[in-house]
Task: structure prediction
Amino acid sequence: MAEGAIFDFEWPVRHDYFTVYTANAALLGRLPDGALRALIVRTYTAARGTLDSIAFNGEMIARVEALQTVPGPMDADRQALIDAHRANLVLYAQGIKQSDAELGTLFETLLPRLKEAAVG
Result:
């Protein structure tokens, strides 16, 4: 995504993609490695937050589209509101990009630890 661009993508994240985690979260306490437990929770939390952010981004895009399609001529107030929403979308896109980078780092750290724990 280019710097200063919006994340112009609507993905209706409405499903629980973490049913296995949710169903087994209580079992995390059985893991003897406390650092691994914490890493699993941090990674889950980051993934959930990223998906929630993407869903909210879609809601913000829908608001801009609704403002742009109001019948009648575009007046200065409505254009200013659209511009303000788009500026917020640019800032929000930067946050999504940062969240994605953090999530990638967490996954890169977690996956080898999970493989090690499964073999050990």
In short: The mean pLDDT is 92.
